[in-house]
Amino acid sequence: MRTLTNLDINKSIESRKLIFEENWFDKFDNFTNYLIFIALITSSVLCLKEINPLSSNDRVGYYLFPLVIVFCLYGFYCKFYEKHLKEIKFYIHREEAKQKILEYGKKYNYRISKISDNLVFLNEPINDFSFGNQEKTILVFFKNNTILYTVIKEGVRLNAPVLFSQHFTRRDLKKILQKK
Question: How far is it, in rounded angstroms, from Cα 118 to Cα 58?
């Protein structure tokens, strides 16, 4: 699990953003991710300017570079909003909602940690062809009849943003918090 030093649960819930002490590696990681995305976007735009759309040889690049630009913009957006908490409302009792989330974690073999009144961590090992035990963590905060959550991923060198699994997580959490 990614280390969140001095995570302030109450301030995080109030501000709807993770409030913790970032170390120099977290700041360097953010800078590196932004730099990579900006470099890829800039180089794709420059290459796109050089392509002749009427030439049959350049047609692949004409379609490829806009896709790279869109992907990088999406990655930049995901990294920028990684620490912002998304909200899901539910209409069941809070303890029942917490129990359903814990059952969801057990069902999908998450390592459940930090169980408190307002917070649950669901940790899932990731296998992205890297070394070491790395995990993707779903942080679930409870506030009245809503949950606030985010999905963060740890990495050895580069904490790449969670691009698509955050949408699957949202769908799953909405489904399990519906009244039956």
Answer: 55
Q: List the 135-143 sheet strands across, edge first.
A: 86-89, 146-153, 135-143, 119-125, 111-113
Helix (H) / strand (E) element for 44: namely helix 24-50
* Predicted local distance difference test score (pLDDT) of residue 116: 83
What's the CA gap between 8 and 10, in Å, rounded? 6
Kindly tell me the burial class for residue 22, based on how many C-beta atoms sit within 10 Å of its own C-beta (0-12, 13-18, 19 or more).
middle
Q: How confident is the model at residue 175 (pLDDT cuts 50, 70, 90)?
A: very high
DSSP, collapsed to helix, strand or coil, labels residue 166 as: helix
DSSP conformational letter for 85:
P
pLDDT in tens, 52-85: 777 777 777 788 889 999 999 999 999 899 899 9
Is a pLDDT exceeding 90 seen at residue 103?
yes
